[in-house]
Amino acid sequence: MENExxxxxxxxxxxxxxxxxxxxxxxxxxxxxxxxxxxxxxxxPGSVIANDIGILSWLYNFGIDTFxxxxxxxxxxxxxxxxxxxxxxxxxxxFVGAAGQGGIFLTMMLASLFFPLNDAASxxxxxxxxxxxxxxxxQRLNSQFMAPILIVAYCYMALVPIIQPAVLKATxxxxxxxxxxxxxxxxxxxxxxxxxxxxxxxxxxxxxPDSAALVGMLMFGNLLRECEVLDSLSNAAQNVLSPLITLxxxxxxxxxxxGTDLLTFQTIMIIGFGLxxxxxxxxxxxxxxxIANLFLPKDxxxxxxxxxxxxxxxxxxxxxxxxVGNEANRQNHLLPFAIGANVAGQIGxxxxxxxxxxxxx
Amino acid sequence: MFALSNAATSTVNAAVSMGFRAWGLLALSMxxxxxxxxxxxxxxxxxxxxxx
Lengths: 361, 52
What we know:
Radius of gyration of chain A: 20 Å
Helix content of chain B: over 70%
Number of helices of chain B: 1
Structural class of chain B: mainly alpha
Strand content of chain B: under 5%
Order of helices and strands of chain A: HHHHHHHHHHHHHHHHHHH
Largest sheet of chain B: none
Oligomer: heterodimer
Largest interface: A-B, 45 and 33 residues
């Protein structure tokens, strides 16, 4: 009983910390603020708000557990925000997006040393750098660590500007970071922009049927944006639906944030594996380009920093790459390539989640 | 020394095989999308030329 009280007190402090990070440091405020407030609510001594009849429980059951409504709806908003133009112009960046998911699989392998396979896969998916995918995969795989996985995933996503520069600098030489690339902006036809989300949905659903819902919602959101006949709906998906669902998602996670469930040694391990996943993601993308550079002619080498943007943290990761590249060479303008790699990472992470689900049957 | 029990070894083996298989399939799917984008880009360019 006394222990429970201490756990509750710690979780209330964690809640206050999350609110502080959201307001003062502006770290994922739409999610961390409701999560922090929810953590305080469910850990108040004698709180009934997360009981079976409580609103938070209802939100969790409806939005995540039974119908998986929140993560899927959130994807419509994310899809409507993404411009796939830079990727369509440089389609080779798709392979950077595939390489950048290495962190998911490598972390899953390492985590399987300490966790059952379903939990290891759910921990690995932190490397997707994609909140909705992390929720959906850990929920479908019945992972008992869904709450810490989600908190860790969002915290590391907010910490991308701190984690990635260190990894990028550690995995590249100054000479490599200085490689200059010229970008010739081309036009992407409306026809291509409209067919792209439909084609991606069909291909991904054929390769991994379990990714159909994830990819489908993401690409549907993008189709809303690109069709140019539903601008008001596209704007609503971007500016209303997405923040609203994120807020509800944060609140609905709260019932899982009870001190007795969360303050365990496994949570500390998940924090470690989460960091590892982000480091591996970045390094895999960088090394993929380094290997490709071995076969490319001298005058068309690719700056390996772009590989670091092959993750789903959009657009933070692309900005980090631009900044690190610019520090090495003032003439460097890597942003268009990095944005392309970043949106490829978005497709890659969703597909990786679907593939993991497919493999579990 | 660090030793894994049989059950743990089979979990790790399953994770390694699943991980590499999923990564391979991911690369393959991205390859499929890559080909489609190449075709779409060519079609787009052709359409633009026809318009001109």
